[in-house]
Amino acid sequence: MNLYYRGYLLGDVRRFPHWSEPSDAAGAEDAALADETIVYLRDDFSVVRSPVGADQGVLWDAMTPQWREFCDTVLRFRPPRESADGPA
User: Fold this and answer.
1) From edge to edge, which strands make up the β-sheet containing 38-42?
2) pTM score > 0.70 for this model?
3) Which residue among 14, 39, 42, 84 is least enclosed by CB atoms within 10 Å?
């Protein structure tokens, strides 16, 4: 269960060198999103369009060491420990 989300401008998230937009038919409209669109980074490091119904509208779910490093150093994303590791 994902408990923590943080909003970012899509343009900031797109700065990740390996970022790619969804290429499937369901995500085709997402490729046209403006850089000013707010997207949400979850505590599992996936990016979604909305924290409500977050299993739909997934823009990124490739959890790699490079992505995690980008989230930490560039986006300064640090989910609360109890969210990332489960209840303490």
Assistant:
1) 5-9, 38-42, 47-48, 58-60
2) yes
3) 84
| pLDDT tens track for 18-68 | 998 876 544 545 557 899 999 999 999 999 988 887 567 889 988 899 999
* AA letter at 70: F
Residue 9 per-residue DSSP state: E
> Residue for token digits 């989910």?
79
What residues have CB less than 8 Å from 68, skipping those under 6 apart? Answer: 45
**Site of tokens 């085709």:** 28
Token pair, residue 53, equals 């119904």
Return the structure tokens found at 4.
Answer: 């923590």
Which amino acid, residue 82?
A: E
Q: Tokens in use for 42?
A: 């979850």
Instruction: Report which DSSP code applies to 34.
Output: -
